[in-house]
Design brief:
The complex is a heterodimer.
Chain A: E1 3-8, H1 12-20, E2 28-33, H2 36-44, E3 50-53, H3 62-71, E4 77-82, H4 87-95, E5 100-103, H5 110-117
Parallel strand pairs in A: 1-2, 1-3, 3-4, 4-5
Chain B: H1 8-33, E1 37-39, E2 43-48, H2 52-60, E3 66-75, E4 79-86, H3 87-96, H4 105-134, E5 143-145, E6 149-155, E7 170-180, E8 186-193, H5 195-210
Antiparallel strand pairs in B: 1-7, 2-7, 3-4, 3-5, 3-6, 4-8, 7-8
The chains are: A alpha/beta, B alpha+beta.
């Protein structure tokens, strides 16, 4: 079954890097968003069974996306992908409902191991 | 000498590379000060030298006085890194590090130098490491830093850079903000690089872009 996934980052290059690091065998339909507003829109349209979410973004950042989703009772498998490597950033993202936290730059194989850890079929 | 503007892809790639390096710098600052550091999206601009002062004023604000520490770098990349503090931030920094009394000038200066050294080292080190990882050629040369020194105390931000003192025509301006949560502290890191370094970075970014 094809999984709709959403890649959220203000940098087009960062989105490309993330998409390149997805497991080749994973059957996905990819939607991209460059800020939090676009992300929520895509989520509401059912395009984000799995969401890869950057934290530092203009307009609406990743924390605000997580807060909004939590407040509205929205549910998605959210993996935060961020250059902010402060332990507190990771803690906050998880408190706000992110399941996993991946540090940028995304190293090869890391996305696959996170997905497997959470039992995603690849 | 004229210089081509950065393409949208080049700018975006450098912004993301800076973002990653900034994350490392922010984490170092957070550890030093034992607090959470808010990071913003870095700004990248390729400017003619006379426009640099205006850009710094836009970043920092026009009705403030700043104290700045400079550190030059050479080797793999060449340029000047400047860490800009607002006056209230200097006092805040001192109190966070346990100085309750009025700091003497020497101790305050040392703090500003230490913080600048950490931010500049982590940020430029992070950028260099990533650029070297992209390009298999032309990645020789270590990054070397001069000792940090105070370049100005309590001056308007637009007076920090005197274009006549630099022999460059253009500068790549990379601007990063560090804000401490619940604290009255903001610092700005500005990196200025001349034409030769701009073209070197551009070459590496093009290799990076072509790899997708």
């Amino acid at each position: 079954m094809t999984t709709p996934i959403l890649v959220v980052d203000d940098s087009a290059m960062a989105r490309k890097m993330l998409i390149k690091s997805l497991p080749a065998s994973w059957d996905v339909e990819i939607t991209q968003a460059s800020n939090g507003h676009e992300a929520l829109q895509a989520y509401r349209a059912g395009k984000a069974h799995v969401m890869f979410l950057d934290l530092t973004m203009p307009e609406m950042d990743g924390y605000q996306v997580l807060e909004t989703m939590q407040r509205e009772g929205l549910d998605s498998f959210i993996i935060v992908v961020s250059a902010d490597i402060q332990p507190m950033a990771q803690e906050r993202a998880k408190q706000l409902g992110a399941l996993a936290f991946v540090k940028k730059p995304v190293s090869p194989g890391i996305i696959e191991s996170v997905l497997r850890e959470y039992g995603v079929q690849l | 000498m004229s210089i081509a503007p950065l393409s949208p892809d080049q700018r975006d790639s450098l912004q993301e590379i800076t973002n990653i390096a900034m994350g490392q710098a922010g984490a170092s600052l957070a550890t030093l000060l034992n607090t959470f550091v808010n990071l913003s999206v870095p700004r990248i601009n390729l400017l003619a030298l006379p426009d640099v002062s205006g850009s710094i004023r836009n970043l920092v604000g026009s009705d403030v006085e700043v104290t700045a520490v400079r550190q030059s770098f050479q080797g793999y990349l060449m340029g000047e890194a400047i860490v800009i503090y607002q006056q209230a931030g200097c006092k805040e920094l001192a109190s966070m590090l346990g100085h309750t009394d009025e700091l003497n000038q020497a101790a305050e200066t040392e703090l500003l130098l230490d913080v600048a050294n950490i931010l500049v080292g982590a940020c430029l080190g992070g950028i260099t490491e990533q650029l070297k990882g992209i390009s298999k050629e032309n990645n020789s040369g270590e990054l070397r830093f001069s000792a940090p020194s105070v370049m100005a105390v309590n001056v308007p931000p637009e007076t920090l850079i005197n274009p006549e003192k630099l022999s460059w025509t253009h500068a790549l301006l990379v601007e990063v903000n560090f804000t401490l949560e619940n604290r009255n502290f903001v610092s700005h890191l500005v990196m200025l690089m001349p034409e030769k370094t701009i073209e070197k970075i551009r070459g590496v970014l093009d290799e990076f872009i072509a790899s997708f």
